[in-house]
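ok trying again, last paste got cut off:
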Amino acid sequence: MLHSAVNNLPLVLIICGLMLAVAALGTKMAMRIGIPTALGFIGVGILIGGQTELRTLLQGYEGAYSIGNIALALILFYGGLSTDVRKVRGIWLPSITLATVGVLGVAGVTAFIIRILVPSVPWSVALMMGAVLGSTDAASVLQILARERLSGRVREIVELESGLNDPMAFILVATFTSVAMGAPFEVSTIPAIMWQMCAGALIGGGIGWLSSLAIGAFEEDSPEIYPVITIALALLAYGIAESLHSSGLLAVFMTALTLGNSADLPFRSTIVRFHASLAYLAQIVMFFVLGVLVIPESLLDIRVMASGTLIALILAFIARPLVVTPILLLFRFPVRESLAVSWLGLRGAVPIILMMIPMNAAHTSEGQHNLSRAFAVVFVCVVVGSIIPGSTVRWVTRLLRVRLPPIPRPSTTIDMVTKTPLDTRMMIMVVQPGSSIDGKYLSEARLPGEITIALVIRGARTHRVRGDTRLEAGDEVALSLPERMVPIAQVLFGELGE
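nice, full thing came through this time. structure:
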């Protein structure tokens, strides 16, 4: 296989280049229709995997599981790095509840329905399948919601939940897999689960805190060095936590969350943008590898297609709303926001990675063959579960009245690469029609003293700012302001209501 790849290196590079180009160019279309771009690479993996020896090179499910975990760690690191704790300060408890009790509840409801539909399936296997499908996918959620404007706390709680619930799902799948393989469920398992979650969070928080101190004292002025350091931290956090029998994924998320919200993090914008691209690439690799493992013939089984589709519909319309909505109502969330959060629980590659836990636990080829249909069912469920909620995000959020009307986005961006974090930020805002500053001269706009206008861009021309500069709808305005003044500026420019 390796010799063949070397001989055909130009062709391999052409194929890889075309795949990445299609993924990048298809992102805008994917956001428009609400389907993760990387989902298409499952199909590419199926086509290539059936014609090559890639399955052998991956060493079956074990190699793919390792690759999937590394990719997921990089995705969660970006999720933690880009999460602003000031915006999620009031939703930690409901998000953690959804990521723990919610995952267990969705697993239980799904298992109950599976038992009703197929009474011959043992409870242990049904619970294992429910746990596999119980968590949402951070990469899919971040991509689909990237350009959506949602009211209330819908976006924040969906994104935070998706970053926190994968560790719980991994622990539950491992536990129920052990029971399904014949091991008795012991009460001591519950403290072990709590240890994995709590220790993973503490280890990640500790590594993030120590890293922020070390990086803040680091004297390197080259911004390209810092993304290498943060990748190293992601890998170290995962490895250390897993070696101590705690949740490596939660440790990675907490490391990034602590580091990303440190006041001393240099070149913050450079680091976040790098990890955004890396997370997108990791998602592509993850979907491609999972596609390689799928046996196309198994997808032609009408029972597999019907079962996977039915379970996906049950998850979207019954299991998740039945669990998530009551939990959020207990925290006094409005019904509309609760229903929106329950619908926005997009599935991605994570359930397929989780299904590799029982596949690897089976050890023998006979045992894996017996689980191959379940693997195919999960695969179909993931594909259908990504398309149905994803493609209806705009329609459902509009129906629930939590989707805000889109606003014109600036065609210009400001890129400031600074080592020392500043007490202000530079940003571009567009003057919205009918806003309080639309049609007014700068001298009469009554901007707070802490908001400084540096430049006005109108069409393809830049204009110096003076007191007699008139602001018009559609102008792109470069601002310098403290972070706490951003909401005020959004009101003045018409991005938020008065």
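cool. Residues 208 and 251 are 9 Å apart (CA to CA). The beta strands are 425-430, 452-458, 461-463, 476-481.
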